[in-house]
Write a structure and sequence with these properties.
- By secondary structure, the protein is of the alpha+beta class.
- The protein has a domain at about 145-280: Histidine kinase-like ATPase, C-terminal domain (Heat Shock Protein 90, 2-Layer Sandwich), CATH 3.30.565.10.
- It has 7 helices and 7 strands, in the order H-H-H-E-H-H-E-E-H-E-E-H-E-E.
- It has helices spanning about 1-30, 45-100, 105-135, 150-160, 160-165, 185-200, 250-260, and strands spanning about 145-150, 170, 180, 205-210, 215-220, 265-275, 275-280.
- A hairpin with a 2-residue loop joins strand 6 and strand 7 (about 275-280).
């Protein structure tokens, strides 16, 4: 009887060892083929190990995909930046060539004014790219303070008076301060970019509102409204004009989104209804 039990025990052990060996071979094959591990043996420790390996593989694959996407995004960004910088530089070079062969003083004066405008635009572009590098840096820290966003909006509209007076916008502001927490430079840039975007694309109608809840809204009609994809309006380098011929870098609204994230604000609404584009953002109210 004892002998039979011993034989039976040996058979069980042999079968168990065979099963383990086969499982190890299967795991080795699955790992070598970069496949998700599937366990045939009912063993909690092996299942736990397989789960850890699967999670590790998943994270590695995710990291690889992210690296590839970031490389493609970098290539795309470099191409866009190169195009945006090359355009005014090429224009400046062209007008300098014209000046060399021009003896008419008035014509020279006109050429110089064009070159100055292109140089100013180039300076603005470089500032935008510099701002972008700061915003996307994890090491750059914004100083947070108590601000009257109503005053910042008012000051911005005064600065944009010459551009706005031709459009006769509807403006609604509060009669009392609207206190929010944020960064003065960041808040000013957010308002400026949103207003500039509305001015650039408006074909006559602009409405600007700041309310007591710290919500800033800009509405405008535009002839290019049918081409606008509101779902990607705040993406980096997105522009309605795919040829990028109108001087828009496609960074203005992206910078708005990133700055809002830095100061705990956000985008409340982006919609296109009844031929009117509406963009609303909110600032964090002081407690």
């Amino acid at each position: 009887m004892a002998y039979l039990l011993l034989v039976l025990l040996n058979l069980i052990l042999a079968f168990s060892l065979f099963s383990w060996k086969r499982q190890i071979c299967e795991i080795t094959k699955q790992i070598s083929e970069n496949r998700k591990l599937r366990i045939s043996l009912s063993n909690k420790q092996i299942e736990k190990l397989a789960g850890i390996i699967n999670e590790k593989n998943y994270l590695e694959q995710k990291a690889k995909i992210q690296i590839i996407q970031e490389k493609e995004q970098l290539k795309h960004s470099i191409a866009n930046i190169s195009h945006d910088l090359r355009t005014p530089l090429t224009s400046i070079q062209g007008y300098l060539t014209l000046i060399k062969g021009c003896e008419d003083k008035e014509e020279q004066k006109h050429y110089f004014s064009v070159i100055q405008a292109k140089a100013d635009y180039l300076t603005e572009l470089l500032q935008i790219f510099y701002d972008l590098s700061l915003i996307e840096s994890d090491d750059y820290i914004f100083g947070i303070e108590k601000l009257d966003i109503n005053r910042i909006v008012t000051d911005c509209l005064i600065d944009k008076y010459n551009a706005l007076k031709e459009l006769t916008p509807t403006v609604t502001i509060e009669n009392a301060p609207v206190w929010v927490t944020g960064n003065a430079v960041a808040c000013k840039r957010i308002i400026e970019n949103l207003v500039t975007n509305a001015i650039r694309y408006s074909n006559g109608y602009i409405e600007i509102v700041i309310d007591a809840n710290g919500i800033f809204t800009v509405k405008n009609t535009t002839s290019e409204l049918k081409n606008i994809d509101v779902n990607i309006l705040f993406q980096k380098f997105y522009t309605v004009d795919t040829s990028r011929s109108n001087g828009n870098t496609g960074l203005g609204l992206y910078i708005v989104k990133e700055l809002l994230n830095k100061i705990e604000g956000g985008i409340k609404e982006v919609s296109c209804k009844n031929s009117i584009l509406t963009i609303s953002v909110f600032f964090k109210l002081c407690n």
